[in-house]
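Just curious. Invent one:
>
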Amino acid sequence: MKFAAIADWVETSEPFPVDFMCRELEVSRSGYYAWLGRPQSERATADDELTGLIRFLFDALRGNPGVRRIRAELASLGHRLSHKRVHRLMHAAGLQGRHPKAWKRTTVHGDKPVPAPDLIGRDFTAAAANERWCGDITYVKTWDGWAYMATVIDLFSRKVVGWAVADHMRTSLVTDALTMALCHRAPVGAVVFHSDYAEPCVKPRNGWIAFAGRAA
């Protein structure tokens, strides 16, 4: 690797002297020139061929494919390589997949947020239906923009009992999901609702729902 680094620097527009680079990298000058005269190993030759194929796939595929997608494409062509080798070859070729950053916030505190107690003690189970519900907000990017979904899940059956979709994250998104859950289930007694978007408590038409603290 040191000899290869020296050779790369020699080919630049402003190279360092070979003697200087050999001294700094603690290798012999004669060893460097002997390395230059050696034929390229089969492994290095294979890497060069694979790099050319990887470049072709990277340009042909849409969306700046990453290591996993390039590796899958290579496997479909009969080249079964390890994840590390594909990563090394892509890195050496200056190819990097696109990594979208999660920048959407789904939890926005009010002006005077009131912390809700954890009424279920992080025990995400229930002995019967309509005793403990759990919910959250997620988002999906569509052709027309971001779509936000609020869900209500019964911790007894793990079934989605209420949901709502909108192009915003206002309070109505959550209340619509809860309204659907209340209409479908019509709980008789109090229901504990564990989430990270709730106010301390509300009193819906069908009875009290006590909101627990932040969901896991």
About this structure: The two ends are 47 Å apart (CA to CA). Strands lie at 132-142, 145-154, 159-166, 191-194, 201-202, 209-212.
